[in-house]
Design a protein that fits this description.
Length: 201
């Protein structure tokens, strides 16, 4: 999360901003640390071989085919699973955590585009997200509406290592690859809901 400068020293509210690829890397959990290590290994490989690497930093991916009922399932898949059982989505904290939810079809398009794009450096990190910032609570509410399910429950619980806000500046992917996300959240969640409903039926 990038915060406006100086606010914390004056006791004012901090304002989250979009995170560019140039933001300092500061992994707060094992998952994040493995992502950083992967980029470090790719940098070494490119230096030793002269090859180029597009390090695509996927944000909150959702869509058909996503895992269910595993520790690695995305929150959209978990909430859909709850709703299809007739249970409300249970949202951590206050539900106002900001995210970029990106449909898997947009992610696939970014990967294919990156495979054929000329890259400006040995390793080019690129955020792969959407221009639309959504809170976890908003996403859960839209899923409940789509599936005609119960309203979300805001639990106030939290997980150590979770980042409060993480939203991407994806302008570099547009500039370098000519790629940008196309599928809005309502359309994407309807697609996810339909695919998961077929699995349950």
């Amino acid at each position: 999360m990038i915060l406006t400068s100086g606010a914390s020293t004056r006791g004012e509210d901090l304002a989250p901003e979009l995170v560019p690829e140039s933001a300092p890397l500061d992994p707060r959990n094992t998952y994040a640390a493995t992502k950083v290590h992967g980029e470090q290994l790719a940098t070494i490989w490119s230096r030793e071989t002269g090859g180029t690497v597009a390090a695509l930093r996927f944000h909150n991916v959702y869509g058909p085919g996503m895992p269910r009922e595993t520790p690695y399932a995305g929150v959209a898949s978990i909430f859909t699973d709850n709703l299809l059982r007739g249970e409300p989505p249970r949202v951590f904290e206050d539900g106002c955590q900001r995210r970029n939810f990106i449909h898997v079809s947009d992610v696939a398009a970014a990967v294919v585009t990156a495979l054929h794009a000329p890259l400006p450096a040995r390793l080019t990190p690129l955020n792969i997200g959407t221009p639309w910032v959504t809170t976890v609570g908003e996403m859960a509410t839209e899923l409940s509406r789509t599936l005609d399910g119960p309203a979300l429950i805001v639990t106030g619980a939290y997980r150590l290592g979770d980042v409060r806000h993480i939203t991407a500046d994806c302008s570099a992917a547009d500039h370098v690859l000519g790629w940008r996300a196309r599928i809005d959240l309502r359309t994407g969640l309807a697609d996810l809901s339909e695919s998961q409903h077929h699995i349950w039926c």
